[in-house]
Amino acid sequence: MSLLETQNVVRTYGKGTTKFDALRGVSLAIDKGESVAIIGKSGSGKSTLMHIMALLDQPTSGSILLDNQPTNKIKGRALNKLRNQTFGFVFQQFFLNAQDTVLENVMLPLKIAGVTGKRRKELALAAIRAVDLESKAQNKASNLSGGQKQRVCIARALVNEPQIIFADEPTGNLDSTTGEMVENILFKLHREKGITLIIVTHDPDLAQKCQRQIQIKDGLVVEGGE
Ligand code: ADP
Ligand code: ADP
């Protein structure tokens, strides 16, 4: 049974003469517990598709189904809540709060979810442990190496026990050894916690480590959609 489905998704940017269809009818279904790579050349529509699948952006037409439920009517706070509970995000540029500690960064999604006090700290520390960064919990995020920063991002993505982790070029800013370590953590979470992974990547080696490769070309799925 599919966890996340896109049905004939079109995303048009701009108006009039600058109008451009970044996605031209994307239908695909992702099962619970799958690991999927979204691949394709720069400008093919991968980020647009990921943003739409993660309910960060809305399609111009077409639908997104989560657990077979349409999502188009969910708006505002309810949408934020759904996203925060269901998805974790890992980006190439990290997006950590540099002046805050590792622990504070990882507690943030719990704060948004309304988890308070001791439990918030315990859950955050458990996620920090899962990425082997216990010893850095009280360090400022700005003082960490790139690989450590990305591990903090994974802990932050993980802390609400999401069904899906979306990773947009998660190793794009890392050297290959560090990148591999970050990949290993993501795939360990996939194996051991059954988290669905959706990874946008240019890296063929990373793509091959996923169970399925969905190739996007000029706003259409050309391979791996089924
Ligand atoms: P990819 O992630 O594969 O590089 P994107 O989804 O970022 O592709 O972009 C797909 C196409 O849509 C590109 O031609 C890009 O320039 C265009 N595009 C993306 N975002 C916008 C936007 N906000 N406004 C206008 N065009 C955009
Ligand atoms: P990626 O490296 O992930 O493909 P891009 O550099 O294509 O990312 O895009 C980065 C951000 O800028 C994305 O959020 C995308 O939607 C936006 N963007 C991309 N192309 C355009 C564009 N032509 N006009 C406006 N925004 C764009």
How would you describe this protein?
The mean pLDDT is 95. This protein is 36% helix and 27% strand. The strands form two sheets. A six-stranded mixed sheet has the order 6-7-8-3-9-10, sandwiched between helices. The chain has seven helices and ten strands. It has one domain (2-223): P-loop containing nucleotide triphosphate hydrolases (Rossmann fold). A hairpin with a 2-residue loop joins β9 (212-217) and β10. With 226 residues, the protein is an alpha/beta fold. It is globular and about 50 Å long. α3 (102-113) crosses α4 and α5 packs parallel to α6 (176-193). The protein has helices spanning 46-53, 76-86, 102-113, 117-130, 146-158, 176-193, 204-209; strands at residues 2-13, 20-31, 35-39, 61-66, 69-70, 87-91, 164-168, 196-200, 212-217, 220-223. The structure holds adenosine-5'-diphosphate (2 copies). One adenosine-5'-diphosphate binds at residues 42, 47, 168.
By DSSP, the count of extended strands is: 10
Euclidean distance between termini CA atoms: 13 Å
Count every helix, treating DSSP H or I runs of 4 or more residues as helices: 7
Q: What is the CATH C-level name?
A: Alpha Beta
SSE run: EEEHEEHEHHHEHEHEE
Give the amount of beta strand, in percent.
25-35%
Q: State the shape.
A: globular
Helix content: 25-40%
**Can you summarize the main beta sheet?**
6 strands, mixed
Can you list the ligands bound to this structure?
Answer: adenosine-5'-diphosphate
Organism: Lactobacillus bombicola
Domain ABC transporter: 4-226
Keywords: ATP-binding, Nucleotide-binding, Transport
Pfam families: ABC_tran
